[in-house]
Structure formats: C-alpha cells, structure tokens
Amino acid sequence: MTTLSRDVVVDVALRMVEEDGVEQLSMRKLAAELGVAVTSIYWHVGNRDALLDALVEREIADMHTIRPTGKTADARLLSIARTVHKRLRARPHVIALVNERGLAPVLLLPAQAALARELDAAGIKGSEAAFAVRSILYQVIGYAVLERWTERSPAKQMSGEDLWGQGEPPGPAETFEFATKTLVAAVLLG
Amino acid sequence: MTTLSRDVVVDVALRMVEEDGVEQLSMRKLAAELGVAVTSIYWHVGNRDALLDALVEREIADMHTIRPTGKTADARLLSIARTVHKRLRARPHVIALVNERGLAPVLLLPAQAALARELDAAGIKGSEAAFAVRSILYQVIGYAVLERWTERSPAKQMSGEDLWGQGEPPGPAETFEFATKTLVAAVLLG
DNA sequence: ACCTGAACACCGTTCAAGT
DNA sequence: ACCTGAACACCGTTCAAGT
Question: What is the pTM of this model?
Fold first, then answer.
C-alpha cells in the first residue's frame, strides 16, 4: 500500500489507458484501482483533463531521450527511425492523445532535430534536408499506424494473395525495415 | 421540421462528430439537436455504439466510389493517391473511429485494389506490386496524419528556419504532391 | 410502427468538513 | 497538507406506456 502521489496516479492512469483505451479511464475506476476516494485524485492532478495532459507530457519527455547509434550516416538515421517507430507503437493510446491535443509536432521535434543533425553531418542541408526529414518521419508514421491496422484484423491483410497471387507477402516488420533502409539510402544519395 | 429517420439521425450525428469530436457526441445532445426525445433515437439506430458503427459504414461505402482518372499509369496512380488523401483529411474524426474499430484495412481495400489494378496494367506484379501498393498507401497516411498536426500548431511547424536556415520550406500540400509524384515515378521504374 | 417520460446506474466536479 | 462523503449536473440505456 504505497502512499498516494501525483506520480503513482499518473503511473496507474497510464497503465489503464494503454490497456483499455482513454474512454475507459474514469476517475472513479482509477480511484478504486488506487484504493482511495475519488476526490483525493483531484487534489493531486487537478482534474481528468489535466491528468491526460500529464500522460502527454510524460510521452513528450520520453522522446527527448532518443540517441542515434551507429557509425555511418545511414546507420544513425536508421536508428532514429527505428526508435521513433518503436515508441509510437509502444503506447498508441497516449500517442492518439498527443495527436488529439495538437502536440504531435512538439512530440516529434526531438526526432526531427536528431535527423536534421545527422543529415547535416552527412553534408545534406537546406530544403533538401527538410524534404528528407519529412520523408522519413512521414513514412515512420504511416507504418506505425498501418501496422496496427493490419495486425488487428489478420483476416483482412493489406495484401492478400487474392490480389497478386504470389503467396505470402513479407510481414509489416520486414516491410518497414526494407522500406526505411531504401528511403534512407535514397536520401543520402541526394 | 423533417420526420425522424435513421438517415437524418446519422446525418446530424456525422456533422456533430466532425465539428466537435466523437467524445462530444452525446445521445441527449443529439436528441436536442433533432428536437426529439432521447429515447426516439434508440428506436432508429439501436444505441450509441451502433450509431458510431453507422458512421464508419458510411465512410467505407464512400471509399468504394474511387475512380482513377488520367491516361498514363503515373497519372492514374497519382489520382488514386490524391483521392484517398483527400478523403482521409475530409473527415478525420470518422477516420479515427474507423481506426479504433480495426476496420481501416477494410476502408482501404478499394484503394488497394485500384492501385494493384493500375500497377498490373503497367506490368508490375507480384511482390513488387505488393511493395509498391504499401509504399504509396503508407505515405498517403503519413501525410494525412502529419499535415493535420502541422496545420493545427502553426507556431511549431515540422520544419523551422531554426533548424536549417533557408527561409520558408514548402507547405505540406506541395510537399505531398512532390513526394507522391517522386514515389509513383520510382515505383513505375521498378 | 413510432414516440414518450420515468427510472437506474454511471460519470466528472465542487465543496464543506475532517485530520 | 492531504483525504473524505455528500451533492449536483450530466450521461447511456431500459422499459412500460402511450398513439
């Protein structure tokens, strides 16, 4: 029985949101989960809206921990793309919340800056770099969204043999790897 | 004072959802808007969940009206990409609803089939076609999501001069046009 | 076949009251 | 400084009752 604090409230709320979705998070259920009166929560986090804001802030803070790894330019760009992809997929409900609140640009700012830095080091600058950054981020987002789609309805895959014979197409994970590598290579060639 | 029917209920619900978001649609507000008792709605649409399902179904039906235009292969592929992009952006709240319900693959099936058909006519088949279809759709989705992001917080654009000097980068619309043209051309080259 | 009001269980939030 | 229960306005849904 840990004592109540803003942090544990946010912790438990985050878990509940990622398990059942935002609309399933009620202040009363959260209070029950915490073993506390509903109104105690209000003292620590203000209200429901402020609580959701706290989840968003935590996610944004987490994005600032992105560190490129690898020695070559393409390895470093690829590592950024992979990390963003992984984070977007890890907490989709909170990401949706960030989106609804119009804070997605803020969320992606660190990744954007990291990509721009690596491109600059590779000699790609100006509008060419701007285009490259967008291309990579847009693709990462498209995959993060669509992979969830295809996974959740396995019967209706985005690519069925009914459409092009050929047997099993590669899974979303391999497709992401291949497409991102291709894109990064193309971007580095100018 | 039109008589109540399933269709007008769905019409008004759709308008309210796109204006204020799903969470702002309450059965009671909808009833007030329709000038009718709350419980009347239940007779026509079942319940709130079934009503949201009806919005999703309407959106999916709308996607079946996609018709490629143009004579060359790249013009026809581009027209499909543009149409999907436009529809995704026209009703973002309903699209989010489609996504939450795991019906996005169903939503995109017509577009996917249309793309595959055009590629086939251009001599691109099998896994190569599967990859091309995914690439185009993922990019369209990434743009549809991110354009809304960048538009809603103009102060925090995805590309600031602070990052690469150069003055104003091209807007999202031009970037989408350019990126999609580039991608389609690349895909057609194999 | 269609519409209604009453009723129930739930919700977010405020506030006065406790320690 | 922190927690509580009572109270208020709202919500989705059911149901018996009307026409």
Answer: 0.86
